[in-house]
Amino acid sequence: MKKNVFLLCSFVLMYISLLHAQNKTFSIGATTPNTNAALHVESPTNNQGVIFTRLTTAQRIAMTLAAADIGLQVYDTDLKGFFTWDGASWRNGGLALPLSESINSTTPGLELTNTGTGITLRAVSNNVGAFTSVYGLAQAGATNGVTGISGASTTAGSYSILGQNNGLGVAGYFVVTNASNASSSLFSRTIGTGPAANFIVDNTASGNNAIFATSNSEIDNAVIYGQHTGTGSSAGSFKILNATNNFASVYSLTNGLGTAGFFSVNNPANTNPAAYGVTNGSGPAIYGAQIGTGRGGQFQITNASNSEIALRGYTSGTGIGSRITINNTANSSEALYVETNGTGKAGNFMVDNASGSNAIYASSNTGQNYDVIYGEHTGTGSSAGGFKITNTTSAHTAIYGLSNGTGPGGMFMIENTANASAAALGRTNGSGPAVWGDQLGTGRGGQFQIMNASNSEIALRGYTQGTGIASRITVDNAANSSDALFVETNGTGRAGFFSITNTANPSTGVYSETNGTGVAGRFAINNAVSDANALHGTTNGSGIAVFGSQTGTGRGGQFQISNPSNSDIALRTVTAGLGIASRITIENAANASQVLSLETNGTGSVLSANHTGASGDIAVFSSASANVARINKAGKGFFNDGTQNSGADVAELFEVEGDVTTYEPGDVLVISESTDRTVEKSSEANSTKVVGVYATKPGVTLTEKGIEENLDNLVPMGVIGVIPTKVCLENGPIKRGDLLVTSSKKGHAMKAISKLGDGVFPSGTIIGKALENFNGTDTGLIKVLVNVK
Fold this sequence. Notes:
Elements (H helix, E strand, L loop, with lengths): L1 H13 L11 E3 L10 E3 L12 E2 L1 H6 L10 E4 L4 E5 L4 E3 L30 E3 L10 E3 L347 E4 L32 E4 L93 E5 L2 E6 L5 E3 L9 E8 L11 E4 L6 E4 L8 E5 L5 E3 L11 E15 L10 E4 L6 E3 L16 E3 L8 E9 L2
Parallel strand pairs: 1-2, 3-4, 7-8, 9-10, 14-16, 14-18
Antiparallel strand pairs: 4-5, 5-6, 11-12, 12-13, 14-19, 15-16, 15-17, 17-19, 19-23, 20-21, 20-22, 22-23
């Protein structure tokens, strides 16, 4: 009713000028106007209403109003409601707040029944105060809203506020929409003896949680936080009372970077565990499963004075006291990693029973580069690992290293530069080897390595004062294609040095032999700054300094530079004597291969021959010891049996008038009248200046230029031979054998016709004879035996 009163008042202001006298009623559609009303409006057909001033929110707020405008009313089309100016601000034309009503009855004071919302109370405020509401909205700039609904009860068993939904919606909905509001969306508190809140799903067919909490906050706050300040049982308790339920009593999951669960005891007087698991079943008392990239579990004591065990596995049964397993074959970490910064042992494994089991048994199936057992000693004690057999009757190995994989069976390393001891020391008073390395897999049989770049000692030295071999390296597998000895250096010294200091010793300085398919020896320098030879042979005798003999099917020798930036020669032979610097011979009559095969994937020449002497030929070619061809020092070629070329004409290079790119093979060329020794395209009929045709593929090209001069601006003009030539039908169709002369069409020839009809033509006009017929529609290209006459 208040809305209608405001509407009527506004309408009265609009039509106040229509009143003719005071104390009179203005009537529209009313037969008997109400004398107490200034304006009385009725619908003659009982189906009409009244429309007042309609403004958008922006238009309403933009109005300039003062205190004198109190009572001004408009309809807001955005907010769908009437607003009244109270002299200072706009007021919603609905119910005025605060609204207070007491109902002392067993029946509801107000009850609405429909398919939508039963009742919605909306509190809008710019004021600061406590906020308790079923649905509260704070306008922009407000810190909090006002109280939407406040309920209180003093009767046992009754509810201060009861939200019940018999439909499919939410029974209660609490929302804070102000991003700067730090208050709780729902705050439940009791000073009684009951729970502060109780959430129950009382439908066995429901698949939802009794309580579901979610947070999108970036601040370090828990989604659910339970705090107990009294002496009660727990800060939180989760129980499943149904014996057939096989789900977890507590299920904690995180997709973030923190822990899925954290249990902490911050009271130093508390002797209970931070987490305690008990089970009467056959499953684990505590089970931690990590499906992400974090730890499966961690047990840590951060108190430096605590002497207790961080983790103890104890059983009074017949099972294993503790078992740690990695079931992921791609996991490259240790199954057990034990570390100490104290003075005690990193680990202690003891069998205190006359059992036949090992004190420690370690096994690994990992495919990564990790040790089955890794011992590290950072103190000054005896050893990083000590393995002893004190029973003299035991025939077993003190250390037995066996590898069926690709790594070494054992590795000994000293990384302390001040340590002068051996990385591995083998000593025997028996007849067996002092150190024996046996590799049954695919890895190395042994490796000796110095990692200190300033160490000038020998990495491996074989020394004997007996009559045996000081060192022997053997490949005993016929299918082994690797080197019997591979010597490599990244330094500037020799790749290998072999010396016989006994002058009476007739043996070979280096003798390398293999029964496999690989090379007998290989010498390599991989240091780019080294200028030493990978292999250097010197002799003062009459034999060969370096001799390579291949009795198998491989190469007799190979010289290769693998560095693409190396511009040096892969193989160079030099002699200061009178003999041949290099000779390549095939002595096998059945060998059909080339004596010398040259190939390049680069942009340089395949073969470069440079004669720097005073006389002699650049190249001489012989057959059956008789010279058949040669190229002298000046570059002239001599061939006993002539030459054969793939081209069909002889051409000479000429300069042309204009841009050389406008010329193309087949153009008929004449002598230029403008420039000496220059040609141009023909442009008149029966020209006596015709000299040839732009050659397509000359067999011989003549020029006055040297072989290193630029020929890009010259064209090859064919003067004799078979040349594809441009022709036209200016004098009619052309038949094989017809004489050809220049036509008026630029660069084209035509059939020659005698002006006197006696077959006589002016001297110097004939280009040549047609070798093909031509009867096209305009122009074409035919083969012509060019012979200018």
